[in-house]
Amino acid sequence: MTGADIRSKFLQYFAAKDHAVVADSSLVPQDDPTLLFTNAGMVQFKRVFMGEEKRPYSRAATCQRCVRAGGKHNDLENVGHTARHHTFFEMLGNFSFGDYFKEEAIHYAWEFLTRELGLDPRRLWVSVFEDDDEAYGMWEKVEDLPKGRILRMGEKDNFWAMGDTGPCGPCSEIHIDQGPEVGCGAPDCRVGCPNDCDRFLELWNLVFMQFYRDEAGTMTRLPKPSIDTGMGLERITAVLQGKQNNYDSDLFADHVKRLEALTGKPYGVNDQHNIAMRVIADHARATAFLVADGVLPSNEGRGYVLRRIMRRAIRYGRYLGIDKPFLAAVTAGVVEKMAPAFPHLREAATLLDQVATNEEVRFRETLDNGLAMLQEEIERLRATGTDRVSGSFVFKLYDTFGFPVDIVRDIAMEKGIGVDEAGFAEAMEKQRQRSKQSWKEGGLAALSAGIKALADAGHKSRFVGYDCHRNESPVAGLIDAGGEAVDKAAAGATVSLFCPETVFYAESGGQTGDTGEVIGANGRGLVRDTITVGDGIVLHETEITEGFLAVGETVSLRVAEGRRQTIANNHTATHLLHTALKTVLGDHVKQSGSLVEAERLRFDFTHFSPISPEDLARIEDTVNREIRANTRVGTELLSRDQAIASGATALFGEKYADTVRVVGIGAVSRELCGGTHVGRTGEIGLFKIIAETGIAAGIRRIEAVTGPGAFARFRKAEEQLDGLAATLKSGRDELASRLEKLLSRQKELEKQVATLTARLSLADLDGLIASAPEVGGVRVLAADMPVADAKTLREVGDRVRDKLGSGVVVLGAATAGDKVTLLAMVSKDLTGRLQAGNIVKQVAGLVGGSGGGRPDMAQAGGTMPDKLAEALAAVPGIVSSMLA
After folding, report:
1. Cα(678)–Cα(664) distance, rounded to whole angstroms?
2. What are the tens digits of pLDDT across the range 588-638?
3. Where are the alpha helices (DSSP H) in 669-734?
4. For the purposes of burial, counting CB atoms within 10 Å of the CB of 658, is it exposed (0-12), middle (13-18) or buried (19 or more)?
5. pLDDT tens, position by position, 645-699
6. N or C: which end of the chain has fewer CB within 10 A?
7. What's the pTM?
8. Alpha-carbon gap, residue 571 to 601, rounded angstroms
9. Phi-psi region of 707 (alpha: psi -120 to 50; beta: other; left: phi over 0)
């Protein structure tokens, strides 16, 4: 039975049971900012389960396309390495909205699996929530379910909740015993095996939605309990086809055959090749469906996840030796395979081909450069006995070269070394601002009830703050932290305040929102941020600091003027920077994003290589020349067509109203922009670039400061120079030559120290060798060497091996940073019986590390220097076990 047969049979079965067969929804959830992608069959029915939406049916069945590759549900890193994980999969589900409940759901599931699909009941097990006596009793009535096959399990495994609050309830899962040959072999292997093996495989989850949990954790029974079930098509297909791996089923067979033809490599022979083909097959499916649903590769949000998926597939293609663009061909195969069930794939076929080809062509150069740098770094790490790629290096690859972190992680795993995930996360957090936007999106979701009330009343905001920083306006709405509209808010509360007119600029077009004060007759508050929601509703995120503010009273709105001025400085400087980039680098430069804050500005743009120091200096000079010219900055309102005809620059993909605001800076710059700006360029004072990096293939980023911030940077640099000069007892002009001499002297001293250390370590070499025991006729020397680094340890090892002749040498050293460096050597005549890599791997495990290398020489690192003596003492025993 093919996967397509199972999909069809499932929908036909439930249609015969009076279920409406409902078309699956888009992978991009509609009106649900809590989800990145549709990740379960019930997503399109969430509002129905919550009682907020009515459908013309009370029972339904679907085959829902799903993606789990980002956010809370993220299976990306496991794909290819396990038998069951996918980024894209199909979820079969049947649902009851206050219609049937447990008894019917259990009957339908059992009948479909055993009668329609023909699974042997003797292979099936059932789990229920530990307190659900009702479900337990119903399963006991199933005649052909063998006795003793119903297990009670805890909340972690058998209780489902939509969130911290909302509908929830116990669930019941149906599992299949695939046989001991698939299991872990442990005596306690069972359903819910602690070793997470695949012997007892979950096939179907039946959720009994019968409670509502409030914020206090109290659960009350729902007046109309419901059913939500899910069964993965890929999983049930593999089971029915007798496969122990989803990727061996017919759902993936065509894609794997195409990859065999492209690579000339057979599937099923080499484990690493198998992983690569599985990754590509899975990611090609995810790519095809995401593009068909309107997601395109980008550096933000869903597009960023798609780009990660595509680039991971491309990297594995390179690993398989495919030396030309191939992803478009594989995704075309997905369209051919899946279009009968999902016709919209055909409509997107041309776009999919272009997107896959363009992304691969763009990424290949980045991939080659990144792979070379990563390989060089791994070799360096091995030479120094380090077992983890630093977070700073991973960030450098990502930020400067656009090299995906997932690929670094995959390659490191293949090479047997780790990645400093925490260090990368810390570096990443300093650079990106996505967290701020994510917070706002989550916050806006929480405010939905109060916002809806404002929108229903027809409220909109009018910005009157271009020429003034204060105004008075009535408070027309207050929304509390829970999202509800309130009439009054007292000191200590944080609310979203709405006024029909405001001088506060709401975050838009890359410009951050204003801060300031709100002052009323009975209280005041601090505005921490200003945002726009819905159709033109501006909300002031306000902390009430004194008294209270109330709906209906007139308040004074006061923008923090100093902050507004620095934001205006940076925004106008951004326009000047855009022009300077085109002037210096060429007309191919296009804006790809921007961020204008009080402290700095950030500008992303298209360009295909790092900018040279000389060009950066020219860009700075061009901007500062326009600042010194003190050119007037003017604005005018025009129709969109008039503005474009006048030469104003518009951002691709940006939505503009029929009437637009054009900001002009003399004859230098003319852009569509709603932000706040200076009156004349001289107000900016000074412009200084502080960073130039790459954030993706063909996308560069410049960060800069202006005015007081730029001047402060120069002053700090001078103070640092003076401090350095004082430390070195030198004048500023002599610093360079003084440092060169010091560095040269340091290198000479390091060489002397290494030489002396090696000599000291070898002072009693004859005695050391004489004390080496024989193990199975092989001399084994294991010693702690007081050397400072891995290079010196190798030099000492060469001398010891040469002096020893035939035998095994294992040397260890506690090096800088509480690390352990290990070196294992096996003479050439013994490499047929002993492998240096196997020896050092076992020794490294005793000091909390890992490593490997050639049969005759291998290195490793560890993190437990206090265990070094114990590890070296174990070497004779390790060698003895290998000789046995």
Report:
1. 11
2. 787 878 999 999 999 998 776 789 999 999 999 999 999 999 999 999 999
3. 707-727
4. exposed
5. 888 887 643 556 778 899 999 999 999 999 999 999 999 999 999 999 987 655 7
6. C
7. 0.52
8. 7
9. left
